Each structure stands twice: as structure tokens, then as C-alpha cells.
Amino acid sequence: xxxxxxxxxxxxxxxxxxxxxxxxxxxxxxxxxxxxxxxxxxxxxxxxxxxxxxxxxxxxxxxxxxxx
Length: 68
Prior knowledge:
Elements: H1 7-21, H2 26-39, H3 44-66
Helix pairs in contact: 1-2, 1-3
């Protein structure tokens, strides 16, 4: 499993940040990301890395939103 291994990795991180700062609509964006990952043709370890990238971005977005 590799994290931040390609150009899409930064898009996963950015998607996490955007999701966190949208507030009420965040569940909608999380579902879109999950369905995108299910449909994407990658091995399971790469998908896990993508989820970690998304969650790192989401955590960062929550911290920014909280003013930390």
C-alpha cells in the first residue's frame, strides 16, 4: 500500500478537505467518494491508500474549520 503515490493522491486529499468544510453536505460527498472508489479498477491496497489520503484531507479540513 502506498499513500500519496500519484497525482490523483492530491485530489483525494483535496476532496477530503472540501468535504470537511461543506458541513451538512459532507455525507453526500463522502458517499460520492466511496462509490467512486468501489467503481474504480484498482487493487484493494491502492484503494485503502486512497481512503487514507481522503481521511487525512478530511481531518485537515475539520481542523481548519475548527480554527486550529
